[in-house]
Automatic annotation (TrEMBL):
UniProt-recorded name of the protein: C2H2-type domain-containing protein
Organism: Hyaloscypha variabilis (strain UAMH 11265 / GT02V1 / F) (Meliniomyces variabilis)
InterPro entries the UniProt entry points to: HET, HetReg/Transcr_Mod, Znf_C2H2_type
Region annotation Disordered: where it falls in the sequence: 807-826
Highest taxon in the source lineage: Eukaryota
Limits of the C2H2-type domain: 8-28
Length: 909
C-alpha cells in the first residue's frame, strides 16, 4: 500500500511518512534578500547569443545561492547548426504551479541583486552546487528573460541547439524520500541484473519495491511535455532525486523491462496481488504503459534514427542515439497526438514544445513580435533589422526552396491567442498529412483544457505572453485532452492518484503512415477549395471551420452509455440477442463491441465471437450489465481477458446507437436523437454533427459576408506587404554582402554617416516618401490652360464627353435579382444630356463619386441577397467520431452514389 503523504507547509512539497532529507529543510533557511531586484540586460541584437548561469561553489550548509549570468555567442558553422564553445550543462526541471517565494543572489556590475525563484528550483541549485568549483548551467527560468516576448521566442528557436550542445542534461525530479531511494537502489542492484530477472518478477518479497518504482515513475517531472524535447536532444542525462542519482540509460532499461513483462504476461500484477499490502487492487500495473515515464522512454527511442557515431564514448550516460547525426522520424501531428498525457504550464507549449524534434517543422520566430524592447537604432536602421533576427545574413534561397523540403518553418507566436495557435496547428496538419485522412486530427483529443491554468497566474507567465483582447472559446473541431483515454485520479484502496482509463481509444488511431484503421471516405481527399477557417468577433464570437462532405444517416435511437467499461443489458435487447445461453451473439453486435477490429487495429480474430458469448455467460448479466473489469481480473482466462480489453477500448463512455437505416453503431455519450451521421472528405471514419436549432437570419448572413470581404482585403494587403518586405530585405542583404566584401568589416560601417545615407536613400522608406510627396505637389501646382480655338474646343468637348455623368445613369434597384460585384465595376453609360466640366480634375472627381455610389449600392445588394439553398444557413457542432457497422471501409461512398446524395459544405463551430 502506498504510504500516506503530507505536505510541507512552506512549499507544499510531498513528504512521505512525514520525513524528508535535511536538504529540503535547508531550502527554507535563507536570509532576507537584498533590496535591489535583478533586471535583465538585452541580449546583443546583431548576433545569436544566450546566457549561462555561473553557479558559484559552496558548502551544503550554506543556505545562500550566489551566481552570475554570462553571455555566450553562438558561432556559425558550415552545417548551419551553430556552435557554443563554452562547456555547460542544461537543467531540466518541472516548473509547476508554486509561487516564486525563494531568492537567489546574482552578481552583476560589481553589485549583488536578488531574483525570485520557485522553492523547487532553489533546491535543485543547492543539490547541483559543487563544493569546490563553479558550475555553468543553462536554466530556462533564469537564463531567459521571460518578461520579454521577443527574447523568449528567439531563445525557443535556439532551444534545440542549446540542449544539443550541452555536455549533459541534469534532470531534477524533486526532493527525495524513502520510496525514491528504494526505487533507485532497486533498479541499480536488482532490476538491471538480468540473470535473476525472472526470479525477481515472481518474488513475493519484491512487491514493495515494485510499488516504489511505480511511484517513482509518477513524479511530476515525467508528466511535463517539455521533457520530451529536452531528453530527446540531450547527449547524456542524469536523474537527480534529492541526494540520489541514476543515469537515464539505466532508468530507461528498467522501464522497458517492466513494460515488456507486464504487457506480455501481467506477471507483476499477479505478484502484487500475492502481497497482503496490495491485494485489494488487482490491476496494479494494468495501465503502466500509458504513464508519462513509459511513453517518454518509448518516444525517445524512436524519435530519431542514428546515422553514424562521431562523439566520444560516454559510458553508461550515453543515450541510445547520437546527438550530432540523427534523423527525426515522427511528424508534429503524431507527437502532439501521442503525447497528450504530458502537461504544460502555458497552453501554447502543447504545440511549441515539440517543434524542434518533429520531422516536418523548424521553429521560427514570429514576424509580428513587439519591437518595443529593441534599441532605437535597430528600428531606425533597416540593415540591422535584417541582420538581427538570426545574427547571420538571411539566405533567401533557403526560404524560396522551403516549399520543396520536408521540414517547414513553424512560427512561434506566444503573443497570439491560444485558439489562433490551435487553428494554425490544425491547418498545418491538414496541409502536411495524407489528403485522404487529413481531417483525422479533429477526432483526436490533444488541445489543452479550455480554462484558466493556475500556472499562468505565476509571475513568470504574467508578463511573458500578452493577453489577447478577444476571448473566443475553443470550437468543437479542436478536441480537448478531457476526452483522452487515460487520466490521473484517486483509486479505491490507494491514497495517491493513479493512471486509469477515462474514455475509449480513438477510432482513427495515430497518424501512422504504414497502417490505417478505417477508410470510410475511401480515396476522397479533403477539398481544399471548400476548406477555410473564419473567426467571428462580433456578437456571438466563434471560430468556424468549413469542410465538405455529405449526410450519410440520422441517429434514431440512443441507448445508455457504458459506465466503467460495462455492457448494459439494454444493449443486448437492442441487438435482438434473446437467448444468451443457446444462441450465438449476432454478428453485427459483437463486431460493433470491438469496432470490427482487433487490438492491433486489423481485422478481429475469429474467436472473438466465442469469447463474446463466454463473457456474457460469466460476466454477471443478471445484475443488469456485464462487468468486463471483473472478467479481466477474476476469470483467469487470457482469451476472454484479451476480448474484454478490446471491448473496453471501444465502449468506455460511449453509447450504442441505431440509425434510421437500422444500422448499429457506437458514438460519444453526448450523442442525441436527430444528430447527423456524416462523411467528411479527408476523414477516415464517420462523424456525428449536430445541426443548430435556429437558422441564421439574413442580417447575420450579410454580416458574415461583409466580414469575409473585409478579411479578404486585409489578407491580400498583408500578402503584398510581406512580398514587398521580402524583396526589400533581399536587396538590402545583397547590398550588405557587397559592402562587406569591399570594406571587409561590418562593425566599421554601422557608424559611417555616408553609408547610412546611401542605404537610406537607396532602400529606405522615408526617402521614397519624400520623393512621392514632391511629385504630388508638382502635379497640384500644374494649371490647366483653357482652350480657345474651335478645334481645341471640339477636342475638349470630346475628352469631357467621355467623363460626364448624370444621376439618371444609375437606376439600379436593390430589390431586383442580385447582381455580382463584378457587374458594378463595368463602365457607366453616358446620357445624351451630359453636362461639361470646366477642368479635367472636376470630371474625374465627379466620376469617382458616382462610381462609389453605384458600387456601394451593388455591394449592399450582394450582401443582403438570399442564399440559393439552405445549406449555409445552418452551422453544426462536432460531437465526435463514430463507428457505423458496415460503413467503415468505403461502403458509405457506394451508398452515396446509389442513393444520389448531394455533397455540401458544413460550417463547424
Amino acid at each position: 500500500m502506498a504510504k500516506p503523504v503530507t505536505l510541507c507547509q512552506q512549499c507544499h512539497s510531498a513528504l512521505f511518512d512525514g520525513h524528508a532529507y535535511p536538504s529540503h529543510h535547508r531550502a527554507h533557511q535563507q536570509p532576507r534578500p537584498p533590496s535591489a531586484e535583478f533586471k535583465y540586460e538585452a541580449l546583443p541584437y546583431d548576433r545569436r547569443s544566450t546566457r549561462l548561469l555561473n553557479l558559484s561553489c559552496g558548502s551544503p550548509e550554506n543556505p545562500e545561492i550566489e551566481c552570475s549570468l554570462i553571455v555566450v555567442n553562438i558561432e556559425s558553422t558550415e552545417s548551419g547548426r551553430g556552435l557554443i564553445r563554452k562547456e555547460y550543462e542544461a537543467l531540466s526541471w518541472c516548473w509547476g504551479t508554486a509561487k516564486p517565494t525563494s531568492y537567489i543572489n546574482i552578481r552583476s556590475n560589481g553589485r549583488i541583486y536578488s531574483k525570485r525563484v520557485q522553492p523547487d528550483l532553489l533546491a535543485a541549485l543547492k543539490a547541483l552546487r559543487h563544493p569546490q568549483q563553479d558550475r555553468y548551467l543553462w536554466i530556462d527560468a533564469i537564463c531567459v528573460d521571460q518578461a520579454n516576448v521577443r527574447e523568449k521566442n528567439l531563445q525557443l528557436e535556439m532551444n534545440p541547439l542549446i540542449y544539443d550542445q550541452a555536455k549533459s542534461v541534469c534532470v531534477w525530479l524533486g526532493e527525495g524520500d524513502v520510496a525514491s531511494s528504494m526505487a533507485i537502489k532497486f533498479i541499480q542492484e536488482e532490476v538491471l541484473q538480468l540473470q535473476n530477472f525472472d526470479e525477481l518478477c515472481d518474488s513475493r518479497d519484491a512487491g514493495k519495491k515494485w510499488s516504489a518504482l511505480l511511484d517513482f515513475m509518477q513524479r511530476p517531472w515525467f508528466s511535463r511535455r517539455w521533457v520530451v524535447h529536452e531528453i530527446a536532444l540531450a547527449r547524456s542525462a542524469i536523474l537527480y532525486c534529492g541526494e540520489d542519482m541514476i543515469t537515464w540509460k539505466d532508468f530507461a532499461i528498467a522501464v522497458e523491462l517492466l513494460l515488456e513483462v507486464e504487457t506480455a504476461t501481467h506477471r507483476l500484477s499477479e505478484v502484487m496481488r500475492k502481497d497482503p499490502q496490495f491485494f485489494q487492487i488487482p490491476d496494479w500495473f494494468d495501465y503502466v504503459s500509458a504513464l508519462g515515464a513509459s511513453v517518454l522512454v518509448e518516444a525517445t527511442g524512436k524519435i530519431f534514427r542514428k546515422t553514424k557515431f562521431t562523439g566520444p564514448d560516454l559510458g553508461n550516460q550515453q543515450l541510445p542515439y547520437e546527438h550530432a547525426d540523427r534523423q527525426p522520424l515522427l511528424s508534429l501531428e503524431y507527437l502532439v497526438s501521442s503525447l497528450a498525457i504530458f502537461d504544460t504550464s502555458a497552453k501554447h507549449d502543447t504545440i511549441y514544445a515539440l517543434l524542434a524534434i518533429a520531422k516536418d517543422t523548424i521553429p521560427s520566430v514570429s514576424e509580428t513580435y513587439p519591437r518595443a524592447n529593441l534599441p532605437v537604432e535597430v528600428n531606425r536602421f533597416p540593415i540591422q533589422r535584417a541582420f538581427n533576427a538570426q545574427g547571420l545574413l538571411l539566405d533567401r534561397t533557403k526560404s524560396a526552396l522551403e516549399g520543396f523540403t520536408r521540414r517547414k518553418r513553424y512560427t512561434v507566436a506566444y503573443e497570439s491567442s491560444y485558439v489562433d495557435a490551435c487553428k494554425t496547428f490544425v491547418q498545418f496538419c491538414i496541409q502536411q498529412s495524407d489528403p485522404t485522412r487529413a481531417l483525422d486530427i479533429i477526432c483526436r483529443p490533444w488541445a489543452a483544457e479550455d480554462k484558466d491554468n493556475p500556472a499562468e497566474t505565476n509571475f513568470i507567465y504574467e508578463n511573458r505572453t500578452p493577453r489577447p483582447k478577444e476571448t473566443i472559446p475553443l470550437p468543437s473541431w479542436i478536441p480537448q485532452v478531457t476526452g483522452a483515454p487515460y487520466s490521473f485520479f484517486t483509486h479505491p484502496g490507494s491514497h495517491s492518484v493513479r493512471l486509469r482509463r477515462k474514455n475509449a481509444d480513438t477510432l482513427v488511431g495515430l497518424p501512422n503512415a504504414f497502417q490505417r484503421n478505417y477508410n470510410a471516405a475511401e480515396t476522397r481527399e479533403v477539398d481544399h477549395k471548400s476548406l477555410r477557417f473564419k473567426k467571428r468577433l462580433k456578437h456571438n464570437m466563434h471560430f468556424s471551420m468549413y469542410v465538405k462532405g455529405f449526410v450519410l444517416d440520422v441517429v434514431d435511437h440512443v441507448f445508455a452509455a457504458s459506465q466503467g467499461g460495462a455492457i448494459p443489458q439494454e444493449w443486448i435487447d437492442a441487438a435482438g440477442w434473446e437467448d444468451v445461453d443457446r444462441m450465438d451473439p449476432p454478428d453485427e453486435f459483437w463486431r460493433t463491441l470491438v469496432a470490427d477490429r482487433g487490438c492491433d487495429g486489423r481485422n478481429p480474430p475469429v474467436y472473438y465471437s466465442r469469447a463474446c458469448k463466454e463473457s456474457f455467460l460469466k460476466g454477471g448479466l443478471p445484475s443488469g450489465s456485464v462487468s468486463t473489469s471483473d472478467l479481466i481480473n477474476n476469470e483467469r482466462n487470457s482469451i476472454v481477458a484479451q476480448f474484454c480489453r478490446r471491448v473496453q477500448a471501444v465502449i468506455w463512455n460511449r453509447s450504442l446507437i441505431k440509425t434510421k437505416s437500422m444500422n448499429m453503431g457506437m458514438a460519444s455519450k453526448n450523442v442525441k436523437r436527430g444528430d447527423l451521421v456524416c462523411i467528411l472528405y479527408g476523414c477516415s471514419v464517420p462523424v456525428i454533427l449536430r445541426q443548430c436549432e435556429e437558422m441564421k437570419t439574413l442580417e447575420e448572413l450579410a454580416q458574415e459576408r461583409e466580414e469575409d470581404f473585409i478579411n479578404t482585403l486585409k489578407e491580400v494587403q498583408l500578402r503584398w506587404k510581406k512580398r514587398y518586405e521580402r524583396s526589400r530585405r533581399a536587396r538590402i542583404t545583397r547590398a550588405w554582402r557587397l559592402l562587406v566584401l569591399l570594406f571587409g568589416s561590418i562593425r566599421s560601417l554601422r557608424e559611417d554617416p555616408g553609408f547610412k545615407f546611401y542605404v537610406a536613400r537607396k532602400y529606405g522608406i522615408k526617402w521614397r516618401k519624400i520623393v512621392r510627396e514632391r511629385l504630388l505637389e508638382r502635379e497640384h501646382r500644374r494649371e490647366i490652360t483653357p482652350r480657345t480655338s474651335e478645334s481645341e474646343g471640339s477636342e475638349g468637348r470630346h475628352v469631357a464627353s467621355s467623363l460626364v455623368l448624370t444621376d439618371n445613369s444609375f437606376t439600379g434597384d436593390p430589390k431586383t435579382s442580385p447582381q455580382s460585384l463584378s457587374q458594378t465595376s463595368r463602365s457607366i453609360p453616358l446620357p445624351q444630356n451630359a453636362r461639361f466640366f470646366p477642368t479635367k480634375e472636376d470630371a474625374q472627381r465627379f466620376f469617382q463619386e458616382e462610381v462609389a455610389k453605384t458600387w456601394d449600392m451593388g455591394f449592399n445588394t450582394w450582401l443582403n441577397r438570399s442564399p440559393c439553398d439552405g445549406s449555409n444557413q445552418y452551422y453544426y457542432q462536432f460531437i465526435g467520431e463514430a463507428y457505423i457497422h458496415e460503413k467503415m471501409d468505403g461502403e458509405a461512398m457506394e451508398y452515396q452514389n446509389t442513393q444520389g446524395i448531394w455533397t455540401q459544405v458544413f460550417e463547424l463551430r
